[in-house]
Amino acid sequence: MADGIKTLDVLADHFGRLGGIGKRTAVRLAFSVLDLSEEEAESFARAIVEAKRGIHCCPVCQNLTDLDLCPVCSDPSRDRSTICVVQDTRALMAIERLRDYRGVYHVLHGLISPMQNITPDSIRIKELVSRVGAGDEVREVIIATNPTAEGEATAMYIARLLKPFGVTVTRIANGIPVGGELEFADEFTLHSAFEGRREY
Asked: What homologous superfamily does CATH list for 6-54?
């Protein structure tokens, strides 16, 4: 990978195992590490180890945190009657950037995918069901998984599980992006746009 420099190859190989990192980017990152001073490299390595050891799932919502409870769950101003279900912490962060949503979350850490042997037991669905069933505080569960086959299958599965609890289960709308043109939209996107229409 790095023209026979074994140690550099090992480093680049480790970077290449990270999601979304191709071979060339992995080699570039390995060379970037070589450009660091020894102190900077040790600090970088320490940060990786400390993040791995210190970050865990929030016991309430399964969000990643390095505290006892994540910042959302520990915020008394959040509306605990509404739970937004997301695939991962990155999706949660995207919603938080909007600053519109004031409810709480539940992080699944994946989506149901039989092709990849990811079953409902492989992700944090049981924890969501326990949470909703624990009391009458929750009134609405918003399912905000991606509009993919796996995201839709996961949303439908969760909706079926939660139906007996009498909570309202909603799905975020999806469709034509702002600035998009109808003629370039596929049938699924157009269908979703019509299904998710709202009154003005």
From this structure: RecR Domain 1 (1.10.8.420)
